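Why run this: before we spend reagent on co-expression, it is cheaper to look at a predicted model of the complex and decide which construct boundaries make sense. The entries below are exactly what would go into the expression plan.
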Amino acid sequence: MIRYPNGKSYQPIQPIGTKKRISGESSYSNRGMTLEADLNETNQYYLVNGIAVIHKKPTPVQIVNVDYPKRSAAVIKEAYFKQSSTTDYNGVYRGRYIDFEAKETKSTTSFPLKNFHEHQIEHMKQVEKQGGICFVIISAFGSVYYLPASDLFFFWERQKLNGRKSISKDELMEAGHLMTLGYSPRIDYIKVVETLHFSDESEYQ
Amino acid sequence: MIRYPNGKSYQPIQPIGTKKRISGESSYSNRGMTLEADLNETNQYYLVNGIAVIHKKPTPVQIVNVDYPKRSAAVIKEAYFKQSSTTDYNGVYRGRYIDFEAKETKSTTSFPLKNFHEHQIEHMKQVEKQGGICFVIISAFGSVYYLPASDLFFFWERQKLNGRKSISKDELMEAGHLMTLGYSPRIDYIKVVETLHFSDESEYQ
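The model came back. Tokens follow.
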């Protein structure tokens, strides 16, 4: 039996199509589910089973006007969405800092880099420099990929050099780690983190 | 010259009262500054100098109604403050996960435990279990203390046992690590993290 380092047994993943999955439908748009919902379920699974503590950060909001009615809760009457200067998810696995962003595309040929903005790339570079484990989870072409931040940086810099504004399907399949979707956890990205950063044959530190 | 592990030189702290500090005033309420502002400045200092990447999480808000006017930004028309289930600050230092909450009290005799709620304590326990570095920064009695989460747990559990709903001044001075306030960084909590978790004489892992 495969066990996580904390001694918890690893629950084997089930193929798409069992239980709540509708057979034959694999893209998020078709399934009526979202990448975010699947990641929240995954993080909840990690938390409950003591595998990792990873949370999605709240949506950043600029609050302009708040009403404080008597005998009831404060009501925010005017606020605006702010662009985040960091990534959406972070937390801890085996003491190490984990930081990632999740994105999906409906394009069938490539993943557009406009899904990220300069501030986020800058943040990811700072995290890598500080020894954190940083990556992006990309849902594209009917699959979900784990792309290490260092690879994203390569494509980001190339955009500046030759103007190519996307990662082609072939490139993503080559640089990314394909994740098999399961029932619970749905997107077992910690398995990839474990392989890349903690196993004996780890390519990374 | 003292250097951080990344080779950056340590900027010696300056006593309270120099530059923008008004001599003789040491509590946040008197100075017209907030603990949060000082921590934001400190985190900015760490970021710019490549010492650590720590951010305050956005305030969690439950969005109920959003207006999408033509040709201008979406306006949130109704939203409510939500209780956070985690702590306010997290990030990475030398690869390790850092997680903390900051609180201040105007009480002159003790620090009330009602500043925390069960969900936050639960989160801090999960972080500790996962090998993260977790603590609280408490501004009280004219000083700022770094209290390891494990000590906070002790006082939290005692509350359940004998009903004492606060940490006395003496107890905080005994269990907490007094931080000298500086000009930049203002509250050098990473110095305490370094001593407790990374130096040869580290009491912790």
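The interface with chain B takes residues 47, 50, 52-53, 55, 57-61, 63, 73-82, 84-86, 90-99, 123, 126-127, 129-132, 205 of chain A (CB under 8 Å). Confidence is low (pLDDT under 50) at residues 12-27 of chain A. Bring this page to Monday's planning discussion.
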